[in-house]
Amino acid sequence: MIKRFFASGLTSLVILSALWLFGFDKVFVSNETNHEQNLQKYIQTQRWILNNYVDEVDVDVLFKDSIRGMVLALDDSTLSVSGTPIDTAFTDVRVSDFREAAVRFERAYSFITQNFEDKDMNTMTEKALKGMFTSLDPYTDYIDPEQSDRVRENFAGRFQGIGVQFDIIADSITVISAISGGPSDQLGIRSGDRIISIDEETAVGFSQEKVLETLRGPKGSVVRVGIKRPGTASTLNFNITRDDIPLYTIDTSYLLDEKTGYIKVNRFAQTTYDEFMDAMDGLIELGMERLVLDMRYNPGGFLDQAVRMTGEFLPRGTKLVSTQSRHSRFNSEYTTRTNGRFQDLPLIVMINEGSASGSEIVAGAIQDNDRGLVVGRRTFGKGLVQQQYELVDDSFIRVTISRYYTPSGRLIQKPFNQGREEYALEIVNRDRDASTDVDNFISDLPDSLIFQTTAGRTVYGGGGIVPDHIIQADTTRSYVLGFMRQNNIGFDFVRNYLDENSDAFRAEWEGDFDRFRTDFSWTDQDMDMFWDRMENAGMVISDTTETTTYVDDVMYINPELIERDSWIPPAFTKAELARQVWSPDKFFPVYNDQFDNTLRETMHLWNEVENLKAFVEEYKSSQQASRRQ
Questions:
Q1: Does 203 lie in the same domain as 112?
Q2: Which of 310, 398, 554, 556 is the most exposed place for a label (fewest CB within 10 A)?
Q3: CA of residue 120 relative to chain centroid, distance
Q4: Alpha carbon 342 to chain centroid, angstroms
């Protein structure tokens, strides 16, 4: 069959293209390796990019990068490509148009099929598509059918697994974030962790599909994961019990004091606006007079949800964000259509280096319109908009179609011209001092990236949102907390406590969470049992150890560090107790009370909110006076 297929050469390509163009996407019957389908995927992918990418694209670069992707996947150091169809990517031959690129790719595909019979051509085609994207931005990418399903789940439902968002960076499974409330989050797995083994087998070099095949599984099943953490010399091992992964986008909402509401938004999914409005209504009923909106580590999501939520803080006709592209059909401007219900509510927005895309849209609109105080650390810097296009086999490509701009005209996308790996690790390489990071960032900015808010305050583009008030990251490190979470001791301790004391505990506390939050404390006997669990798990207290060290799964720690961190286990397990007795959202009030220094500092900034409001009112008065003159 393969010889008959390739014998027709250009004829088959023309027929294939025509069938696709006229909508007969799935005319060919699939077999184990569907060569027609693979070539059609290549044609579709290149056409979607050429017709929709935000900038002009050189078809010659796309073609040669795709061939490089396949050649690298051959993994043959002795291979000589000279004079073969896969040599076209490395010579001075220039591909001038889409048609020529498709013809040359078909020849290269045929050459590999005939000379490398052990190669899976479905995989080779995917390598070619991924190679095609290397000269483009970091968000234009190929998404296989299973991965696409998982993306939809993340924004619209639930699934069973360990609960991490990850990416493959330099052949390593790198955790982007642990999904709030999931098994990995409960164990303390965090952004930047690299999964190097799964069930005692190396995970280096795993594909996305292989990662999900091994990490996902039935609820209640256990997977052992080895993690390399930046700044930690030894491997950290976690036994993770798979579970239903909660996908609510509002982690929690409650009153910080008698008049200050707090809402934590972890991303923007289909339900975010409705969840947010429900949370606001609940806080207003409790007497909220001002709001802290926490969008730290919010990676974004659906643009319309971010826009709708932001609009509730601003009057009708206020510009929120715009998108711009070389294609006019992708240009748009979003303004508020009605007066926001909360346009007069004093507001603080919290951000950090994990805030991206949709959360940057919210922060940028609030800042540019002088509507509230933005506090924290400089955000990630993602200002590109993607659209998904379906391919013939139900896979997708995600193509960057436009850039978004804040109301003042800022593009907050950070540079990506040093490659995708450097781009992903940029936040890790920032100066740990948040003020120094901002100073370094601003010192390199040209005047073209300096903008003014509505009331004339200076703001910056070109690399995320710079907050109005910088709050340093909490640099406190606790080996006690790390060991405790790594070995799931807090969860197991609480679970055992409830197994033995559930009726008595619930009778006293379950009906009054606020009293629990302020008055509950563990007994000395409870904590003795906790420390016994720590020692049984491999914690060895040794006064001969000056610095904490790990040998396999055993942690050797100095008693002075135990004494210094002795407050942590009762505080953390109290928050875990709230999670297990009430619900995941009740974890945060207890945890924040003890651990969140950034939030604690934020609560001292309401005078700056008042100063900003006075500044804006003075600006408006001066503008009105000028118009009267």
A1: no
A2: 554
A3: 31
A4: 28
Nearest to 444 by CA among 457, 463, 425: 463
Structure tokens belonging to residue 71? 């050649």
Nearest residue to 221 (alpha-carbon basis) of 252, 247, 242, 200: 242
Domain boundaries, position 518: 479-595
Q: Give Cβ neighbours of residue 108 (< 8 Å, ≥ 6 apart).
A: 67, 70, 85, 86, 88
User: What is the predicted pLDDT for the residue at 18?
Assistant: 38
How many Å separate Cα 464 from the centre of its chain? 15
pLDDT value of residue 580: 82
Distance CA(418)–CA(134), nearest Å, equals 11
CA atoms within 13 A on the CB side of 338: 6
Phi and psi at 508, nearest 5°, equal -90, -35
Phi, psi of 137 (to 5 degrees): -75, 165
Number of separate domains in the chain: 4
The answer as to whether 346 is a domain residue is yes
Q: How far apart are CA 37 and CA 126, in angstroms?
A: 12
pLDDT at 317: 97
Q: Is 551 exposed, middle or buried (0-12, 13-18, 19+ CB in 10 A)?
A: exposed
The answer to whether residue 337 scores a pLDDT higher than 70 is yes
Residue 629 lies in a domain: no
Residue 7 pLDDT > 50: no
Give the C-alpha separation, 285 to 272, whole Å: 20
Each residue's pLDDT tens digit, 497-553: 988 898 899 999 999 999 999 999 999 999 999 999 999 999 999 988 887 888 888
Rounded distance between C-alpha atoms, residue 494 and residue 268, angstroms: 32
Which H/E stretch holds residue 130? Answer: helix 121-132
* Cβ-based neighbours of 160, under 8 Å, separated by 6 or more: 216, 217, 218, 219, 242, 243, 244, 245
Tell me, yes or no, whether 499 and 579 share the same domain: yes
pLDDT at 24 over 50: no
Of 159-173, 461-475, 498-512, 522-536, least confident by mean pLDDT is 159-173
Active site residues: 357, 368, 382
Q: In this structure, is the dihedral angle defined by the CA atoms of residues 608, 611, 617 and 621, taken in order, positive or negative?
A: negative
d(CA 348, CA 342): 13
State how far the alpha carbon of 213 is from the alpha carbons of 198, 210, 236, 239, in Å: 11, 5, 22, 17
- Nearest by Cα to 484 from 236, 244, 175: 236
Angle (nearest 5°) at CA 115 between 109 and 120: 60
HSE of 223, CA atoms in CB hemisphere, 13 A: 25
pLDDT digits 0-9 by tens, 243-268: 977 678 999 999 999 999 999 999 99
**pLDDT per residue as tens digits for the range 361-405:** 999 999 999 999 999 999 999 999 999 999 998 889 999 999 999
Structure tokens at 316: 């009708």
Helix (H) or strand (E) holding 33: none
Domain assignment of residue 397, yes or no: no
